[in-house]
Amino acid sequence: MAATVTLKGNPFSLAGKPLEPGQIAPQVCLVRRDNQEIHVGGALGKPQILITVPSLDTPVCAAEAKKFNEQLSALGSQVQATVISMDLPFAQNRYCESYHVEGITIASDYRYRDMEKYGVLIAEGPLRGILARAVFVIDPSGKITHTELVSEIAHEPNYEAALEAIRRLL
User: Fold this and answer.
1) In CATH, which of 3.40.630.30, 3.40.30.10, 3.40.50.800, 3.40.50.170 is domain 4-169?
2) How far apart are CA 78 and CA 72, in angstroms?
3) DSSP string of 49-107?
4) In what order do the strands lie in the sheet with 144-149?
5) Which of 19, 51, 56, 61 is an active site residue?
6) By CB count within 10 A, which of 62, 68, 91, 128 is most buried?
7) How many other β-carbons are positioned within 10 Å of the β-carbon of residue 159?
8) Annotation marks residue 61 as catalytic
9) Nearest to 99 by CA among 51, 65, 58, 76
């Protein structure tokens, strides 16, 4: 049975099963807000945190990306922190300029839909094709050490659990 998330109590199935701790994080190709492709996941030789959100044009997603930017910016190049949505790079750039988000990478999966490999692509209904709200922490060798699939899309993730998982890898 497919995993599901809800929006205001209405269920939506995901395409696949979300990855779990202990699994190897697949490498995926995304497009940064400057239209350059980047690869995340896999073994990058340093800790990674991948944060998926439905759209930066929503209040919860905007607040989440801003909070992670504030918390993770201090770690600098020790961690590859990436917020991922299906928003086009132009919209992501506008968001970053409006909220002064510069310490983390904002990227889009609109081109390849690679985040389906992580099991967070919504598969049905009016939200079909966007990403569920989730957090994946990956160690330098590419192994997932922490995950959170937020069951209600309108809720924020457990920031402290994600940040603690990253701190343990430093």
Assistant:
1) 3.40.30.10
2) 10
3) EEEE-S-TTSHHHHHHHHHHHHHHGGGGGGSEEEEEESS-HHHHHHHHHHHT--SSEEE
4) 37-40, 28-32, 105-108, 80-85, 48-52, 134-138, 144-149
5) 61
6) 68
7) 14
8) yes
9) 65
* pLDDT tens digits in sequence order for the chain, 170 residues long: 679 999 999 999 999 899 999 999 999 999 999 999 999 999 999 999 999 999 999 999 999 999 999 999 999 999 999 999 999 999 999 999 999 999 999 999 999 999 999 999 999 999 999 999 999 999 999 999 999 999 999 999 999 999 999 999 99
Residues comprising the chain, all counted? 170
> 47 vs 23, 96, 170, CA distance in Å?
15, 23, 8
Token pair for 6: 């809800």
